[in-house]
Specification:
The chain is built from 9 helices and 10 strands. It has about 280 residues and is an alpha/beta fold. It has 2 domains: about 150 residues, Mannitol-specific EII, Chain A (3-Layer(aba) Sandwich); about 100 residues, Alpha-Beta Plaits (2-Layer Sandwich). Helix 1 packs across helix 2, helix 3 runs parallel beside helix 7 and helix 7 packs antiparallel against helix 9. The longest helix is centred in the middle third of the chain and has 15 residues. The two termini are about 15 Å apart.
Amino acid sequence: MDFSNYLAPESCSLNLKATTKEEVLAELARLVTRAPGLDGANREAIRKALREREEIGSTGFGNGIAIPHCKVDGIDRFVLALGISRKGVDFDAMDGRSVHVFCAIVGPPDDPDVHLRLLATCSRVLGTGKSRYEMLSSKTVYSLREAFLYHAAPATALDCLGNKTYDKLLIIVVQEKDTYDDIMELFLGMGLPGAVTHEGNLMGQVLSGAPVFAGFLDVLGSSRPEPRTIITLVPSASLDEIVSSIEEITGNLDNHRGACIIVLSPDLVRGSLETM
């Protein structure tokens, strides 16, 4: 994925003027529409879509970064906007800190694969202190863009792991697709290096289709849930934060049906769950 096709110098800013979250979203929408070929895009529609995404949950993932993103009808390709706020803005970030580095992702609603790949790479780039330092130290929009593009180059599994020890196996089962999508988005934003997902069936769905149970076993009624399992390695030091962030999506799992978290301590971990 060549990020130079998504991030133009015209969509970069070293000095965002915004002092509030609403003002930041408006500035980012303006930067998006400055991308070559997007001058006819509806800036207000982009701002509104970014705002609606923030109402679901803040994209301020901590450490002074935020990755607002949305899908907008009428836009036929993905565009990034990169902005620096010298003073910082209260963006309802997970760690409560002000945000200084913003990277917006805006694109069409019919290409979720590219959307997730862009989100994954942006979270990886902004998740390292070195890249943030270089971007915050940039003197021109061209050097800001180059710093981002340099760190957006493909990373190895060891690059992603850094000094963290991924020693817990986290298994999540959810029935609702929207919840699944939000959790995957959360993992990308938190910079987790990889996850394996699987779509399956509840036992009741399997048994209700067997002839021996036909006619008297209807555990599902008219509902046909589609459980999805997410398996990933996480650092034990971050486990509480990760579980708390998941429960911000699902609600308190002690009182919630349709989602379950299991944490295991594997005897041996070799290799990586990250995609090749």
